[in-house]
Please model this.
Amino acid sequence: MNKKPNHIQPTLSAGAFPSVQGMWKQHQSDAAQSLLPTGAPYVDERLRGGITQAGLHEFFGGAQADSHAAAAFALLLAWRLPESDAGIFWISGDKERQTSGRLYPYGLSAMGGDPARMLLVQTADLRDALRAAADAIRSKAASAVILETHGNARLVDLTSTRRLALAAAETGVLALLVRGDAVPMPSAARTRWRICSAPSAPLPGNAPGLPTFDISLLRHRGGTAPFEARVTWDHATRSFFDAPLSGGLSAIVTDTETGPASRQRA
Amino acid sequence: MRLAACDPAAHALGLTAGMALADARARVPDLAVFDHDPVADLNLLGWLADGCERYTPACMLDPPQGLLLDITGCEHVFGDAARLAKDLHARLSRHGLTCQIASGSTPDSAQAKARYAARAISDVPVEALDGGDKVHKALRRAGLRSIGDLAIRPRKPLAARFGKAVVVRLARLLEEEDPRITPRRSLPIIHVTQNFAEPISRTNDVLATIEMLAGNTALQLQERGQGGRRFEIRLFRSDGHVARLAVDTGTPTRDAALLMRLIRERIDALSDPLDPGFGYDLIRLEVPLAEVLANVQVGLETKIDTGAAAAALIDRLSVRLGAERVRQFHARQSHIPERAALERAAQSDASKADWPKADWPKPVPGEPAMRPFRLFETPQPIEVTAGFPEGEPRSFRWRRHVHRVTRVEGPERISPEWWRHPRGYAPGNGSLTRDYYRVEDNEGRRFWLFRRGLYDEIERPLWYLHGIFA
Model:
């Protein structure tokens, strides 16, 4: 029998001298298990800690104009990751940039992010974008990779998402797929969310307040039941918190016709 | 109309360049003539020069019909200069070109010998001095017909009579003074070449050769303590065509494996695939640009160097997609929102050197973002209902959807940058003042709108949607 040291299970003791490879494997499996909490107590409780850091997550916009909310939510989740040298890759195609505009660094920094860590990759088409995303996830250079697509794309199917998901599980990179104006299709993502903008708690003078989202978990590979929540982003603590329902709720009640339920896509 | 050039058969019939077309036709009635196309001639010469780079990287055009190659230190690859000339002659003849090859210790001497088909420089006629008709005529009248006749004369009277330029040229022709040629391309820092007795055409063979050359280059770079920033591969086809592949890297590197990955990407990204034709008989890898790269001790601990990994990834994506498609943010001094932030290629070294790391404003605790996280390159025109002129928006229509405004903050007035305007400040010149509003609609979406122009600036200011808040 030819025993390879790097095949020793991390839980087994490899004698008095644990092999470097074994330790590295152990470290990697720890990384694979680690969860990224959103910071909002209710959401984290339902998710039993948070979303898997080494995995692919999908974010759908509720209605056409909510693709921005999905993009913003994905970006804010990426900023929840602990500070590191590794960059955050934002990959999108020419089409997405034309319909949704470009990222604006002053706005990013005002939300508590560091624009210097952002790396923007703009591809001609979705095929290139998927390939670039897979490369970015596979390399150790990224802490998070966000791929933005717009519209129902046949290329984003079970095969291509599985490729991204496997790469993410291997390297521990947070992979986020933003799908604006699209209908959910089978994919290999660990979680699938629908994100809508939600009325914010107004500031004095009826000024718009902090970023607020209605998030609903549509699907979870770990078996967590779908749920809905309203969260607000606090840039000072770089975390979400459960939105107080007082200010926001009244807006829904007085305006049931356009509430989040009616904005869900079939 | 005159003859610009004639082929050997025409020469044999007594025709010469410069002869009037009518005279030529009178002598040879069925003469075939074509329009003179100097641009095409020059292109052909450039194409030949590309092919001649197989002999030496120092190659210079000598229009209209000449090429100068500096083969110093290169001839040993072929044995000696004569064999090199034989090889060159064979290759040019294959294309149906007539050529006259000569070598000399100075470019001027080689050029003159080739032009006048002379074995020795002393046989070359005085016209090689390029001094103009007057000078040549005067020399001939004095009985000085060849360079050999001039060589034994004292130079001072010559300089006094015909000018210094003639004497300098004479010294160069006589190989007394050696001016360097100015190569078409700057010489690479390192170049490694592989010759093949039989042309190779399979892509795998080509890649294997490049890999071998890359390993060789890496060793040379290591000895010099340098890393390459640009690598160029030249594939010399046996029929004279030369294919070029260039790969740029964001940080100096001498990692052969990384280089191979980039080259594979480059080949994959080619719009028309490499056409080996009858095969490549010479492959060269050049490093035109290199920078200092110290040797690094790799730590025993498996700590991943994210910086190096990021640089490698940026290089890969830049090679595949184009450098301008992989970008980073850069701040710029401007009050106009869309001018205040730039995106620059992440790969360019300028991003590291001249551009100080941008100090992006820190968020204010408790205050929401005053700038959107997304901005439209061109502000989106919208139809706005406002309470009163210069009032805040009540509702607006964007992309066929009406948004009722429930919360609003503003205006934040941004004046045009009149100091950038050539005529300076004057009311109404340059662009218009913008009044920005942060609004939230009844569905909770937050937008950044502005009205372009005050009511005392223009008659009917228009509204635009400029950005989206999270």
